[in-house]
Design brief:
heterodimer; A: 72% helix; B: 198 residues; mainly alpha; Rhomboid-like fold; 9 helices
Chain lengths: 43, 198
């Protein structure tokens, strides 16, 4: 097998970087929504 | 512990175990010159070419699993999208373009495709995620074309890009297919309690 000609189905550093930012963004959005809901419940 | 994380942990252990098999890349990859070796059609998503390839995919798997967990994605949805994308999404591209392939990234892209639709739960625009991932997927082939023109290296990068893109699209399709199929497949017993209040 010529390893130079094998298509590596690998995610790459770019996708991993985007994934990390996406995870952080999702956690931030969830916290924002939680605060909005709590605020609404206290009004 | 969350089922998705357990699933990811088991898969990572499988990837490492398969990697440790001598000559696993040669024996388990999807090879157009060996179409009668049927095991390759199910083994290739578990095989990796080298340590960098393996580590990248384990990190990608971990990320997509954590994101799925944060979005409270159903385990059945996540595992269906991940496994079906891993096994099937590259096949149409492979049949048309004929190349040797191995690795879990199509499954990971399938997971990203699914979660791009799941983000709607938290008012996050999934289209931005799809555009970003698509751009990154084809960046290699675009840079290659700009550097070397339309040659063998561009075609190689393009095959990689289109394979990954097929995983992303497959994951999105699985989301919509599950949305359609679930009410039909689920057998819910409805008990209607009728009270006699005479």
């Amino acid at each position: 097998m010529d390893k130079a000609q094998v298509v590596e189905l690998g995610v790459g550093a770019g996708i991993i970087t985007v994934g990390i930012f996406l995870l952080a963004y999702i956690r931030k959005s969830k916290n924002k929504l939680k605060k909005l809901v709590l605020r609404g419940g206290n009004e | 512990m969350n089922k998705i994380l357990i699933f990811a942990g088991v898969l990572a252990a499988v990837y490492v175990s398969v990697f440790l098999i001598p000559e696993s890349a040669e024996k388990l990859s999807l090879d157009p010159d060996k179409p009668s070796e049927f095991w390759r059609y199910i083994s290739y998503p578990f095989a990796h070419l080298n340590l960098k390839h393996l580590i990248e995919n384990i990190l990608g798997l971990g990320l997509v699993a954590f994101i799925g967990m944060e979005l409270k994605t159903a385990f059945s949805d996540f595992s269906s999208a991940y496994l079906s994308s891993g096994f099937f999404s590259v096949l149409p591209v492979w049949l048309l373009m004929s190349f040797t392939a191995l690795g879990a990234s199509n499954a990971i892209f399938g997971g990203f495709g699914l979660i791009s639709q799941e983000t709607k739960k938290y008012k996050i625009n999934g289209k931005v995620i799809i555009l970003l991932l698509t751009g990154l997927t084809f960046m290699g082939s675009i840079l290659n074309y700009l550097s070397y023109g339309f040659g063998e290296e561009f075609m190689f990068a393009f095959k990689q890009g289109i394979s990954h893109f097929s995983g992303l699209v497959f994951g999105i399709l699985v989301f919509f297919l599950l949305g359609w199929a679930k009410p039909i497949l689920k057998k819910k017993k409805r008990y209607i309690l009728r009270g006699d209040y005479r």
